[in-house]
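pasting for ref
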Amino acid sequence: MRVLVALGGNAMTGPDGSAAPHEQRRAIRRAMSHVADLVAAGHDVAITHGNGPQVGNILVKNELAAHVVPPVPLDWCGAQTQGTIGFTMLDALEGSLARRGVQRPVAAIVTRTLVDPDDPGFRKPTKPVGRYVSKDEAQPLIALGQVWEDRGAKGWRRVVASPEPLEVLDAHTLLTLMQAGYVVVAAGGGGIPVVRSDAATVHGVEAVIDKDLTAALLARAIDADALVIATDVPHAVIGWGTPEARPLERVTLAELEEYAAAGHFASGSMGPKVDAAMRFVRSGGRRSIITSLDQITDAVDHGIGTVIENPTPPNDFER
């Protein structure tokens, strides 16, 4: 089975959210151990991942050094974090596969995601990124063209565009590598946001893209049998935080759409994951699964977690 695994930010930071290098390496080793189990079970696997804490670190460096060197634009931040996280994942995954006696080549590719230059997000940026700073600290960055908002007692925070992903431009490279037997890391952080200048030219833009929405798009582009969205809980839950809370197991697309419309999934946490899972199935994908990282092999092999399927024969888990 061809599987795209979308890793959340918890897979690359310490338990307290620390993005210190040693914490990132430790978390990535743990994540790649679970991915290696999935590969060892015989599946063709691609991996995508978030990069919020890592981009946040670069933005802090931008702020502290703005009077010395020009800030790095967001598309460069995305490229840098794809490279750093990608090579760290490759090192960890190679080791995990070797310990299981599995011989599979691994690769990471710098990946661009096409967005619309007329997307409403560019006219009114709303996605907060980075840390809170004082007004005096924000002013030099505002002078450089960045958009910052006064968030009251917490201080000022930068807001950027978060446009809809339209196409993963390097999906063909990913597919070629997978067909050659590689396990591939791609589209980190939702991909580097780019727009078309003309039919043959693209260039990066100041934006961030939701990684789960890009994962749904990429899973369809590579004809994945399953999109597995790995998070820190075993299921999506309706009625979260109430006495009526209930984990979702197998659920139809129509049922999940009703739960989403009723507001069961928070926009800052489970909402984008549910949206991505629905998009993949709605666009023709066979199966989306939301589950915890340590259950991804059982999720693919046995349908553990929150499973949304297109109509197929029951328990049909073979490609």
